């Protein structure tokens, strides 16, 4: 994967400084993960944002909408795919904006072997609720399949009661990868709401954050 954005200047250890660091960045995620400077933040192919937590030095990731599987997302009458910018100078990233759907089903996975060990991670779905939100008569159901293969099931709070017109995090669960763990499975996550029979609208999905 190529490197689309570098928010803060970064360079490998034992390398002299340069005004051309963006071009010198490695082009693959596996190479970028070798960077140990805490001020590295990179957007890869408009799909994955990677940074290092300054306190714990843990590797953190944001998986933008392109990494997610959304039911009926190929139907323009149900979902639109607008572009969104984190900051005015950034390259735009794709989000999923709900038009009208009867059922919500979102899922995805990530290679947990790229995460740090010995720190507690939180997995959150990041969404925006529009002013005209309707059809959410039941809470969202979430499933998090952790790197050890165990599952965490949750029922979220009523979406109608959450803040509108701002990005919020819906936590899907927490986990830790012990130092001694040898067999690590993929991290998987699912969010769905299929009980309500009313047409739903007003939800915008930005992505999933895996961070400390």
Automatic annotation (TrEMBL):
Residues 1-21 are annotated as: Disordered. It comes from the Eukaryota. GO terms for molecular function: carbohydrate binding. Residues 1-12 have a biased composition (Basic residues). InterPro entries: PP2-like (IPR025886), PP2-like/Lectin (IPR052147). This is Uncharacterized protein. It comes from Solanum lycopersicum (Tomato). The gene is LOC101244054.
């Amino acid at each position: 994967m190529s490197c689309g954005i570098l928010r803060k200047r970064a360079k490998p250890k034992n390398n002299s400084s340069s005004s051309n660091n963006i071009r010198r960045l490695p082009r693959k995620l596996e190479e970028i993960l070798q960077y140990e400077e805490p001020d590295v933040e990179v957007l890869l192919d408009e799909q994955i944002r990677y940074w290092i937590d300054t306190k714990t030095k843990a590797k953190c990731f944001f998986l933008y909408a392109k990494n997610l599987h959304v039911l009926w997302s190929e139907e323009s009458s149900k979902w639109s795919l607008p572009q969104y910018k984190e900051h005015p100078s950034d390259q735009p990233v794709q989000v999923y904006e709900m038009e009208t759907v009867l059922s919500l089903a979102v899922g995805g996975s990530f290679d947990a072997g790229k995460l740090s060990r010995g720190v507690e991670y939180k997995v959150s779905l990041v969404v925006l609720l529009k002013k005209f939100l309707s059809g959410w008569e039941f809470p969202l159901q979430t499933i998090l399949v952790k790197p050890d293969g165990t599952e965490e099931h949750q029922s979220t709070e009523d979406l109608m009661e959450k803040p509108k017109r701002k990005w919020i995090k819906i936590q899907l669960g927490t986990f830790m990868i012990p130092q001694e763990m040898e067999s690590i499975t993929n991290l998987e996550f699912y969010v769905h709401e299929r009980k309500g029979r009313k047409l739903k609208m007003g939800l915008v999905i930005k992505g999933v954050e895996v961070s400390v």
